């Protein structure tokens, strides 16, 4: 915890007019969230909450359903059942519940996997979703804040948890990800020709769990058909289609056929070892793959994303398969309505009888499966430079700087955030959008009135579903001796956005600079955001030609003198959601509502192992 700068206690008590007892209570209430108790940490960096250590009856424990969650990286939602490359998945789909319109809420592996294991949108956890390195501050913040990722939660409920696959983002060893709490993690991301190795290790795990009495959670993550597409010989010859395929799609489908064959072996082992009936089995993907030429260059990032992913939220990037076999059930169903990857975490808990945490964003799929769903689910997604909202077949995608942080991908400037509206009923490939450069000027497009209102509503939904930015407040009591009051606010990165401005205050906005002027001598308050939240604002106030000195400016809930602090003063400005007590003689009071600024700015260099992994997986050249 940071130390607070010294300042005059006598002056502080005098200004606040509060008893010492009251001040003590306020200090505890305001600053306690920043002084978190350290968790017990094991040698591998995992936190343990101490929950779930009670002994259960062996029969009760063994009767719980097993959970087998299979992820096939980059598998698009339009592949299964076509091209003759998925016979094992086709059979699985016919024997269980098939979701025809399943969308992931993030568009590349790390954020999408964390959505799986938390049931929350990518921006709800501290791990960034725009750059490959995961900074030390991010991993530490994740371990502090995310107490119940799925593997850890199942472990506390007496499940033995395994990860077998190729996903370098599920370990903190390489500076690429976080450890979500598996008992046993077998990661093959640093190996060539990993698919068969993953299958062989899965067979060993199956043998191991059969010999034990505990229920188990197996997360099986194949990297194929992720690029580079290099199927073994013979698999592309299985493809049957009238579609004209280029070499990349042929090889992509060849890898799909290869993984399907390997999954057939896994399915057979699960059945012959007697694990099939009492297992909840989910099969899905973490994202799709861009294959339409119109999306080759992402309109949001300007990046070449042809036969890639992560640079937009077009349907081919977010529509993926979802197949589920229920435990001890032969229930079959096809579900045409929209479902989301945030829904998988609560679905698993629902079917194995563990209470669903209240602070997640997803909803169990059980009401849909059982035909009891009464409302339609809506979509919200996030990826690099992009946010999106959808209802049914209609989507509004936004070029967004909302989650940017300083680094190699972004140097601090904010450009135009345009919007693209699609109706995939009439435009299934999303190639002919309605483009809105500014929501405020949407009327200039002269759209149908109902459509205009719908787009505005979608825009408001995006705003309501993203985490709120901190809000800065500046209270000014103009001098009765001076006619003019002038304020200048600047930020080194990002831009300033006004949230509240009195009508008698004139404003001149220039991105990172805002000038305000008034001749009214009535005290007033302005409120603004730093967008995105990457730098701290600086301000100056003049009464006439005289600049207000720091000694006459007070900050934060307690109104501490600004001149008392010169370095690492973030906590001093905090007021959380409480308005400070402003002394009648105060000339300027400044405070921040909404938490500490994130400290991401990444200067971390990836190690050789991490770079080798990313190269093998086609992330970097």
UniProtKB/TrEMBL annotation:
It comes from the Bacteria. The chain crosses the membrane at residues 12-34. Residues 65-354 form the Sulfatase N-terminal domain. It holds the Pfam family Sulfatase. Keywords: Membrane, Transmembrane, Transmembrane helix. InterPro entries: Alkaline_phosphatase_core_sf, GAG_Ulvan_Degrading_Sulfatases, Sulfatase_N. CDD domains: sulfatase_like. PANTHER family: SULFATASE, SULFATASE N-TERMINAL DOMAIN-CONTAINING PROTEIN. This is Putative arylsulfatase. It comes from Leptospira biflexa serovar Patoc (strain Patoc 1 / ATCC 23582 / Paris).
């Amino acid at each position: 915890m940071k130390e607070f700068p010294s300042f005059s206690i006598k002056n502080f008590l005098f200004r606040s007019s509060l008893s010492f007892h009251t001040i003590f209570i306020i200090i505890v209430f305001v600053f306690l969230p920043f002084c978190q108790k350290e968790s017990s940490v094991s040698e591998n960096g995992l936190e343990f909450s101490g929950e779930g250590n009670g002994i259960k009856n062996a029969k009760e424990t063994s009767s719980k359903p097993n959970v087998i969650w299979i992820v096939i990286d980059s598998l698009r939602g339009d592949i299964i059942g076509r091209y003759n490359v998925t016979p094992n998945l086709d059979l699985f789909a016919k024997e269980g519940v098939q979701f025809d319109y399943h969308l992931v809420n993030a568009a590349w592996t790390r954020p999408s996997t964390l959505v799986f294991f938390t049931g929350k949108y990518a921006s709800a956890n501290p791990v960034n979703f725009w750059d490959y390195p995961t900074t030390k501050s991010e991993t530490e913040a994740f371990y502090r804040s995310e107490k119940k990722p799925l593997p850890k939660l199942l472990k506390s409920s007496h499940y033995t948890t395994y990860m077998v696959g190729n996903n370098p983002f599920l370990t903190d060893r390489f500076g690429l990800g976080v450890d979500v709490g598996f008992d046993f993690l077998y990661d093959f991301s640093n190996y060539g020709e990993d698919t068969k190795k993953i299958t062989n290790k899965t067979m060993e795990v199956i043998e191991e769990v059969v010999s034990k009495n505990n229920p188990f959670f197996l997360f099986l993550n194949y990297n194929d058909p992720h690029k580079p597409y290099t199927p073994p010989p013979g698999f592309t010859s299985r493809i049957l289609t009238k579609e004209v395929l280029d070499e990349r799609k042929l090889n992509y489908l060849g890898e799909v056929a290869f993984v399907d064959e390997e999954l057939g072996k896994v399915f057979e082992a699960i059945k012959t070892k007697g694990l099939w009936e009492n297992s909840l089995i989910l099969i899905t993907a973490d994202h799709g793959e861009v294959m339409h030429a119109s999306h080759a260059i992402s309109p949001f990032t300007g990046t070449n994303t042809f036969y890639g992913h992560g640079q937009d939220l077009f349907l081919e990037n977010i529509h993926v398969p979802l197949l589920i076999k229920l435990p001890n059930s032969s229930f079959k169903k096809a579900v045409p309505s929209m479902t989301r990857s945030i829904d998988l975490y609560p679905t698993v808990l629902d079917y194995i009888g563990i209470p669903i945490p209240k602070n997640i964003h997803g909803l169990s799929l059980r009401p849909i499966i059982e035909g009891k769903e009464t409302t339609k689910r809506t979509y919200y997604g996030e990826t690099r430079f992009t946010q999106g909202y959808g209802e049914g077949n209609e989507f509004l995608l936004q070029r967004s700087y909302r989650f940017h942080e300083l680094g190699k991908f972004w140097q601090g400037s904010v450009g135009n955030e345009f919007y693209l509206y699609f109706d995939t009923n009439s435009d299934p490939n999303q190639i002919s959008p309605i483009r809105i450069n500014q929501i405020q000027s949407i009327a200039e497009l002269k759209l149908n009135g109902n459509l205009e209102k719908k787009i505005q509503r979608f825009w408001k939904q995006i705003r309501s579903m993203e985490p709120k930015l901190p809000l800065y407040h500046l209270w000014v009591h103009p001098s009765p001796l001076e006619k003019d009051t002038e304020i200048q606010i600047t930020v080194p990165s990002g831009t300033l956005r006004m949230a509240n401005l009195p009508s008698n205050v004139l404003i001149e906005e220039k991105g990172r600079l805002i000038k305000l002027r008034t001749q009214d001598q009535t005290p007033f308050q302005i409120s603004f955001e730093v967008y995105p939240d990457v730098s701290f604002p600086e301000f100056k106030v003049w009464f006439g030609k005289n600049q207000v000195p720091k000694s006459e400016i007070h900050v934060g809930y307690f109104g501490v003198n600004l001149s008392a602090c010169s370095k690492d003063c973030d906590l001093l400005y905090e007021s959380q959601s409480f308005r400070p007590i402003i002394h009648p003689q105060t000339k300027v009071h400044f405070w921040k509502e909404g938490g500490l600024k994130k400290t991401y700015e990444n200067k971390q260099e990836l190690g050789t192992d991490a770079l080798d992994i990313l190269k093998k997986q086609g992330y970097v050249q």
